[in-house]
Structure formats: C-alpha cells, structure tokens
Amino acid sequence: MRHLIQTSDLSIDEIEQILRKATLFLNTLDSSAKRPTQSLAHTNIITIFFENSTRTLSSFECAVKNLGGSITRLDVSRSSTSKGETISDTAANLNAMSPHAIIIRHQSSGAPVHLTKSVSCPIINGGDGAHAHPTQALLDLLTLKQCLGQNLAGKRVGIIGDIKTSRVANSNIELLCRYGVDLTLIAPPHFLPSHTSLPCTHDVREVIDSLDAIISLRTQTERHSKQNYGSLRDYAHDFCLTRQLVGDRDIIIMHPGPVHHNIDIEDELLKDPRCKVLDQVRNGVAVRMAVLEFFILGSEYHGQAS
Asked: How does strand 182-186 pair with strand 101-106?
C-alpha cells in the first residue's frame, strides 16, 4: 500500500505510466462511442475536504464515477470534527468502513501524512496547507507536455504570483525541476520563498520574452496573517497577465484556479487560445482517474500499464 502525499512519492517512470494512462482516458472521454473501463467497480472512495474546493473535489468525484466506483463525501461541517473529534479518530472511523482510498484536503500542512498512521488504504492528498498539491502538478505537467512536446528539458517556464504560500508552486517546482524545466519565479519580494536556488525576478517584463509558458497563481489571502501589499489593484498593476503584456508572443498561459479575474489574469486573456485553464480542468479528471487506478489497483495496474 502506498500513499500520494507529494510529487516526490512517484518516480519518473511511475509518473510517465500515469500520464500515459491519463492520455488514454482523455481519448475515451472525448469519444461518445467509447467509455472508460469500469476498473474501480465495487470500490468506495471517501473524500474529506476541510477546505473549500470546486475543481479538485469535483474532478476526483468525476474520476471515481467514470471508473465505475462509488464516492462518499464526508460533510466536514456536519461531521464530529466540529464537535472536537481529532483527525486521527476521524481517519480511524472512516477506515473502519473499509474504503479503498481516502482523498483529503486540509488547511494544515502535514495532515495527510498524519492520516496515513491511522488507515489501511491509500491516502491521496488533495492539497495540504502551503505544502503540496501533487495531482495539480501532475495535470499541469500533462498540459505542458501537450503544448510544448513530450521532452520538456530546457523549456523555460515562469511561475508568477504568491509563490511563498502556494502548494501548487511547491509541487510544480519539485516535479518540473526533475523534468529538466528551466524555471523562473516571478513575484514581489514578500511572495517569494525565503530560500530557493531558482532564478527570481520582481519584473515579469524582464523575462517574458524568453518564456515558453507561464503559470499564474492566485494570491493566497487566506494564508496571510496580514495584508502585505497596498491593494489587489496595486498588485495587479505589476503582476496581472494581460493581452498587452503578452502581445503576440508564442507562450502558454496556465492557472490552477480559482482565477482572480483581472488580478491574476485579465478577462480578455482568459479567452485567448494560448490560455489553457480549461484544458487543465479537463486534464485533471483524466489524471485523477489514472492516479486512483495506480494507487488502488497497485500491481494489477502496473501490469495493465505495461
């Protein structure tokens, strides 16, 4: 039994297996004549999200149902955690129901790891604090490969925005560096990580001509103890991606969502064919289908993938 807590839990070979399977799933999802295999029939997966989510929760639910499994969503607001039950007790009780996997999102970094001590099924991290969001990084990787080619070594990708508190940034940095991507971090000084060996800039205009893709991030206002910029309008003046900034450059625009309109990305640019936000959402369902198969079916999955 294995868990997916962060991208480093997977080797490059395993990631490639997952992406190949996700691509096959995309082909079946796009065809009215084909439907994905019901490989997770007679399985039950539990979701327990302590933070709000639209894309991640919905795409995991779609992924489970596409593979013939059943999904049980724990309503945290009505669960015993609101009465003081510990997360360990919650995990132990859920585990007693014999789920085949538990998908968790939590505001505290390390919560999914804590759950692994109390369960006998795979834990899939749907995002924990400012630590990691592995399935988002996997779907971003698939999107970049679709747009830039299978070999990403030497491709130049910028990550712009609130990097310091972003679990998406953390997971993408770990994963894309392993693929040889040339990463540049773009943010105001207080939004950059304290320690990084990656090149950093406070001015997107300095580097945009050299970038093949740019991943914009939401300002994580809920993770700031105090407002550390004059206003969102001030932030947007320097760091919002606009059509004027991008011009006619051959560049891919991405964002994990939710997008702060005209703060992270200008509305007009969101409609541009170079913007792959909805492609990321589509890829998310297929990637999460492949991840669930990988971790629930284990050796059976490896045999199919080979």
From this structure: unpaired
